[in-house]
Amino acid sequence: MLLLFGALAIAMWYFTSLFLQNVLGYSALGAGLAQTPAAVMFVLVARLAAALLPRTSMRALMLAGSGFFLAGFGWLAQAHACSSYLTNLLTPTLLVAAGIGLTFPTLMSVATGSVPEADAGIMGGLANTATQVGGSAGLAVLAAAASGRAAMEAGRSSPAAALAAGYDLVFLTAVGLGLALALLSAACRVRPAR
To answer: Domain locations in the chain?
Structure first.
């Protein structure tokens, strides 16, 4: 599940930044500032998730997070070269960031919560590595998909529209990853902490 999460996180932070810069013409600083509300949302929701986990189930938080992924990435997949930040990017990135905030601390807590205290650091390192590997593999696959789709669209539309089509494919793929994460979460049986 952490592998899938890593790919979802890279789809959010990396590809929305590229969309803002390469399609909507934002500077690198402007794209970073445009993602600041999502970063704040992530921090706020992650704190909430950490407080909710002892009172609710991992499955409930993961399914809620996956719901945010489906809604946010589904909305992002509708963005195009004439999209507006306020109407087409801000709200969906906030939704995805809420999903990240619900799922990341939950997965990390579950990964480290049921191991002996002496092994918690090792398990935390392995969990973090899984997230990083998922992000790396996700970046490779999603970048290849975006590039291929943009190349297919290049002769039929403007360069910005072709790039938007490639990024839209990334966001649609992220919808599928969010669905896979939801299915795994629904099937997962977590042992209580010792």
So the answer is: 2-112+120-187
Supply 132's token pair. 């990083």
The 3-state secondary structure of 158-181 reads CHHHHHHHHHHHHHHHHHHHHHHH
- In eight-state DSSP terms, residue 18 is H
* Rg over CA atoms, the chain: 17
Per the structure block, which two tokens stand in for 166?
A: 């490639």
CATH topology of domain 2-112+120-187: Growth Hormone; Chain: A; (1.20.1250)
The token pair at 154 is 């290049």
Q: What's the pLDDT tens digit per position in 132-178? A: 999 999 999 999 999 999 999 998 889 999 999 999 999 999 999 99
Closest CA to 61 of 6, 127, 106: 106
Torsion of CA 3, 48, 35, 112, to 10 degrees: -30
Please tell me the distance from the alpha carbon of residue 101 to that of residue 188, in angstroms, as a whole number.
19
- Predicted TM-score of the model (pTM): 0.91
